[in-house]
Amino acid sequence: MWASLPAIIAVFVVSGLMHELIYYYLTRVAPTWEVTWFFILHGVAVAAEVVVKKVVPEKVRLNPVVSGALAWGFVAVTAVWLFLPQLLRNGVDEKTIGEYCKLMNLLKFARHMSTEHTVLSVPGTNILDGLRTGWTRV
């Protein structure tokens, strides 16, 4: 039972370090270690949950709806506290929105160009005839 607890925490520590690396590549700013602490905190919480589930009898446990809501609340509060500030502080959200706007403009332009310069016609009056004989370019 106890052997899995260090493994659980180790997985979360590695995940935190990997996220710090990803954040570094996104922001090019030295790590603040907030993201790593977010994952360490969640690793400790998961390990505590494992211990509680093994020690506390099932009759005494919280209803799954209540425990699920508490878990979501824990994730939301700690994300706002530790996970998101580094992205917001360095403008990654604004850069990402700007890049998606550029991508959408490119896709709109490509769609406009493809419909403007290519006309597809179907031989015969029935669209199934066109599928059988193939599309022809006009």
UniProtKB/TrEMBL annotation:
GO MF, one annotated term: O-acyltransferase activity
Q: What InterPro entries does UniProt report for this protein, alphabetically?
A: Wax_synthase (IPR044851), Wax_synthase_dom (IPR032805)
Give residue ranges for domain Wax synthase.
Answer: 4-40
Q: Where are the transmembrane segments?
A: 7-26, 32-52, 64-84
Keywords on this record? Acyltransferase, Lipid metabolism, Membrane, Transferase, Transmembrane, Transmembrane helix
Q: Where in the cell is it found?
A: Membrane
Task: List GO BP terms, alphabetically.
Answer: lipid metabolic process
Alphabetical GO CC annotations of the entry are: membrane
Q: List the membrane topology term(s).
A: Multi-pass membrane protein
Q: Read off the PANTHER family from this record.
A: LONG-CHAIN-ALCOHOL O-FATTY-ACYLTRANSFERASE 3-RELATED
Question: Member of which family?
Answer: Belongs to the wax synthase family.
Protein name listed in UniProt:
Wax synthase domain-containing protein
What species is given as this protein's source?
A: Gossypium stocksii
